[in-house]
Specification:
0% strand; mainly alpha
Length: 513
């Protein structure tokens, strides 16, 4: 791939991702203000169950579409047939997931969520599953074609439609209670997913590359076999569904165990909503920059792996880890320093800020673990990530049951930190073994951590100046600009330019001949 195309796609995904994150954060602040922390807790519990069915509908097909479409392009196969077969398979999985969610909505609300108010929301969400599956398959085909504009436009329109529908729906159900408020919010999800799918279909029909008939040499041979599809879908589906089931069980247990500690179910749901519905979305707000890189990275690693270009894959992985380490350490530093101020400005809740500051210490490992997970999938290591996620989820559930009734939400913050360090270590070790890459911990984490400490010290000094210690937006911007400026200056002086050259060189090395 030409480096110009790669940088163009990265720029589009980064800008669109930032716009979507800004809109999403504004939307979440609006929703939190309207339904409160208890409503956010119920909302997050409903989403935890919904995620199980989303995994069934989309998880394996999203990965398979990207890999099989890239494979068809490399082999000169018919993209028109590839797209049709992928869309058909995705639609069938989506319909299966929709049927199951409709049938199980009421028992799941009663026995898993422990709140019958969630049944209506689960029923409203069910029709979004088949359209989400089809859109995901088309998105993977566009990524394999190195076209990111359709996905960026569809996601932007989807978010705007969601916001508009939710605003109208919340006005209609005002005063009806948290159950109907959550249903109104989630109705926006179903409508917006349908609009997004329609846009992706229109883009696909107009894309000449996705309508190509290939070289014609394959005759009646299918662009990919059922075995190839199953080899990708089943491990990813299995790992994601099991992980989602365990996460839903964890989500159900957290309010129950917190209620034992607090003696109040409503307060427990409120704490859960403040952490999962308010703190974590803000914590992952900057990740859109890295997620853009990750979504472009997987097809390139797949191509290098398919061509047995081990050196090219190693260069790409190393350069990505260096760039990701630089970015993630800066994000973690800002969360530790300014998390409380940011939460007060957005939510008016200092408790949420405390959660952000505590988790900011492990935010770099959260970000890097997500990047490593994507790279492992590009190398075909879905089974390894499945085993690690299974181990991690089982340990989290055991710790929640043992510690939360005795120590409360503080214990859960510690569990989250330990969990992310564990999965980061396991996935990174596997990546190093598979790629044959020698670890460069100094470049990946050591230097960025030193830059973060120096920039953090400057930030603390700036905050100590007269007139800079307030909690308002101007003070936050001034201190944040000082920290980011120092960090970026240090990165440029001590390796930042080299990381960019490595990334550019890796992009050139992955270009097809």
């Amino acid at each position: 791939m030409q480096i110009r195309v790669y940088l163009k796609n990265a720029a589009i995904l980064t800008v669109s991702g930032l716009v979507l994150r800004v809109l999403g954060m504004g939307f979440r602040v609006f929703v939190a203000a309207r339904i409160g922390s208890e409503g956010m807790g119920l909302y997050q519990l409903i989403l935890s169950v919904y995620t199980v069915f989303v995994s069934l509908a989309t998880a394996g097909m999203n990965v398979a579409a990207t890999r099989l479409a890239a494979q068809s392009l490399a082999r000169g196969r018919s993209m028109a047939r590839t797209v049709r077969r992928l869309v058909l398979a995705a639609g069938l999985l989506g319909l299966l997931a929709m049927g199951l969610q409709l049938i199980l909505a009421e028992p799941l609300a009663r026995y898993v969520l422990h709140d019958v108010r969630g049944a209506l929301s689960l029923q409203i969400l069910a029709p979004s599953l088949p359209v989400m599956a089809v859109a995901g398959a088309l998105r993977g085909c566009f990524l394999a074609r190195r076209r990111v504009e359709p996905n960026a436009v569809a996601q932007l329109v989807e978010q705007l439609v969601r916001m508009g529908v939710v605003w109208l729906a919340l006005r209609r159900v005002e005063g009806w209670g948290a159950g109907y408020a959550c249903a109104a919010v989630l109705a926006g999800n179903t409508v917006s997913e349908a609009v997004s799918c329609l846009l992706m279909v229109l883009f696909a029909r107009r894309d000449a590359g996705l309508r190509s008939r290939g070289s014609g040499r394959e005759g009646k041979q299918p662009p990919f076999t059922r075995r190839e599809l199953a080899a990708i879908v089943l491990p990813v589906e299995g790992s994601r569904i099991l992980a989602s089931v365990l996460q839903a069980a964890e989500a159900s247990l957290i309010p129950l165990c917190l209620a034992l500690y607090l003696g109040d179910r409503a307060a427990a749901v409120s704490q859960y909503g403040a952490l999962k519905g308010m703190a974590l979305p803000l914590l992952f707000f900057p990740f859109s920059i890295l997620s853009a890189l990750s979504s472009l990275l997987m097809p390139e690693i797949t191509r290098a792996h398919a061509r047995r270009d081990r050196a090219g894959a190693v260069r790409l992985i190393d350069a990505t880890l260096r760039a990701a380490g630089l970015f993630s350490m800066l994000a973690g530093c800002c969360f530790v320093l300014f998390g409380r101020q940011a939460a007060l400005l957005l939510y008016g809740d200092a408790q949420v800020g405390g959660y952000i500051q505590a988790l900011g210490l492990v935010a770099p490992f959260m970000y890097l673990e997500s990047m490593v997970d994507g790279m492992l999938k590009g190398l075909g290591e879905q089974l390894a990530t499945f085993r690690y996620s299974l181990l991690d989820s089982a340990l989290r559930i055991l710790c929640i049951v043992a510690l939360l009734p005795r120590f409360g939400i503080g214990a859960f913050l510690g569990i989250m930190a330990a969990s992310n360090l564990l999965t980061f270590g396991l996935n990174t070790a596997r990546l190093l073994r598979c790629a044959g890459l020698r670890p460069a911990w100094g470049a990946w984490l050591g230097r960025p951590a030193a830059f973060a400490l120096a920039a953090g010290a400057v930030g603390c000094a700036v905050r100590a100046l007269p007139g800079a210690a307030g909690g308002g937006l101007p003070e936050l911007l001034v201190c944040g600009a000082a920290v980011c400026g120092i960090y970026l200056a240090l990165a440029a002086l001590f390796g930042g330019a080299g990381e960019l050259r490595r990334l550019r060189g890796s992009g050139r090395s992955s270009a097809p001949m």
